[in-house]
Design a protein that fits this description.
The complex is a heterodimer of chains A (258) and B (363).
Chain A lengths: L2 H5 L9 E12 L2 E12 L3 E5 L6 H8 L7 E6 L2 E2 L4 H10 E4 L11 H11 L5 H14 L15 H13 L5 E5 L7 H16 L3 E5 L3 H7 L2 E6 L2 E6 L1 H6 L4 H11 L1
Chain B lengths: L1 H6 L15 H8 L4 H27 L7 H6 L7 H11 L8 H18 L6 H19 L15 H27 L4 H15 L3 H15 L8 H26 L3 H9 L4 H16 L1 H14 L9 E2 H10 L7 H30 L2
Classes of the chains: A alpha/beta (258), B mainly alpha (363).
Chain lengths: 258, 363
Amino acid sequence: MNSEAISGIMKRSPEDKIIEMEGLHKWFDDFHVLQDINLTVFKGERIVICGPSGSGKSTLIRCINRLEEHQKGKIVVDGTELTNNLKNIEKIREEVGMVFQHFNLFPHLNIIENLSLGPIWVRKKPKKEAEETAMYYLEKVHIAEQAKKYPGQLSGGQQQRVAIARSLCMKPKVMLFDEPTSALDPEMVKEVLDVMINLAEEGMTMIVVSHEMGFAKSVAHRVMFMDFGKIVEENTPREFFDHPRHDRTKLFLSQILH
Amino acid sequence: MVESRDKGVQTEGALPPLIRIGMFNWMRQNLFNGIFNSILTVITLLFLFKVIPPFIQWAFIDSFWLSTAEQCRAGDGACWSIIPANIRFIIFGFYPHELHWRPSVAMVLLISLLFYSKKREHWNNSLGYIWVAGLVVMGILMRGGILGLTPVESDQWGGLPLTLMLSVFGMFAAYPLGIFLALGRRSKMPAIRTICILYIEMIRGVPLISLLFMSAVLFPLFLPQGLTLNKILRAQAAIIMFTAAYIAEVVRGGLQAITRGQYEAAESLGLNYVQKMRLVILPQALKIVIPPTVGILISAFKDTSLVVIIALYDILKTTRSALANPTWMGFSPEAYIFVALIYFVCCYAMSNYSRRLEKELRT
């Protein structure tokens, strides 16, 4: 690992760690989907994870908010270790936002209700304040005029921007993105990426599973390549794209960049 | 089309072509398109012609509305007179004659509560309190014993108030119980899951009649000496238990239709299990299963008539008893048509409401 190059990006102390994974393993039945993952994420850091399908990249970030349970190793998020303790899991989920490939907005609620649900019920905010926060973030993702519509009435790109705003309303410390643009029509990818770039500029800690290499180049501090459940290579975007060291990374990049 | 061409906005074909068909064309397309359908149409028309005029003759033209039984026997038409003559027994059963105003008020109260609850704007916490208050008032009216009201033992209750009580409370109690059972059946905790599966499968494995028998005969054996639960309550419990098991399976179907992404999105916001189910999953799942749920509630309503076998006098039984009176013997079709109409009105109102609710909730 090119630690010098990475640590040069930001000044760090151990207290700045927000996510720490140590010797993480996970199996789906007898399929060893994550094999000895070690990863530390610092506050304000932006990481892009790429790799072929089935390589475990989605599973890896889903372990961070316990949508998937790991079977061996240790994950500490924001100072709390993830165990079977439900209270801890809920506490961590409050601080970790997630954006899904298929948006997963709540179809029975309108946009503003989608956004204020978490703040009202989890953060215990008064309804009025939650709705003000919701409007603030809707404006941020340039979609305030759709506040009273239902998710089914919006385009894919709009839905994904709403989904991002929904996570932001919880004022999370980390945002996880699970292939946020993969289910979108090509002409809608940009509007979602623009929102993510804005977010990055504001200093949000982000872990993004994505094949958008342009986004990785311009936004990420670190790019990781995963294959067969392992982190094969990680480096600064420049090094990663210009001088990939592993053959598998080279092959993958040649396929994805044509 | 002319108009749109004038405006020059829409080209021809921008609107679907307007097809005008005359009655003759409509008949040819819908009733006589082909030899087989033509034959069917003719046969059906002949059948209707044979059946409907005589029925109208019997039910409306030759019929008696407010006559004595003797006058009815002398004529050929329907003897609707049996209903006004026995209406109070049919509706109220053995409830003391001079106190009939009490079940009447209770029924009006119940029906107004139902109408009030129809509106979705009224669905909030206070609705619960209103119902509890309504229940207490209805109980006092039916039972008496306080406020200077003459006590009326529950074995004298019967007729329409009994049918309405058994079905309305049966439905309202069975619905939440069914939801809990459905959630329990999908629980990750093996003990809860096993109990729910056992309950649902055992109840669904026996007919309602046998449950009613058990409630009447077996249940008292398990209760401590001296403690008796009245027969209506026991029947009510059996109906609730039975209906809940069916509701549970329907709701489970709805839960299965919700994608994993919805659960994950709710969880990733930090919602706990109760919040996740109440705010995200159940509103969607229950909406999907409105049609089958109402189907179950309608059959539960009709199944309350089975309580006759444990000697409760619901409206069907009081009607039959009225028919047993030698004066009015032989006029059963008229009486049964009347009771069928009451059942029909209630069931139709339910299915109508469910369709409206579905439309309102469509997003």
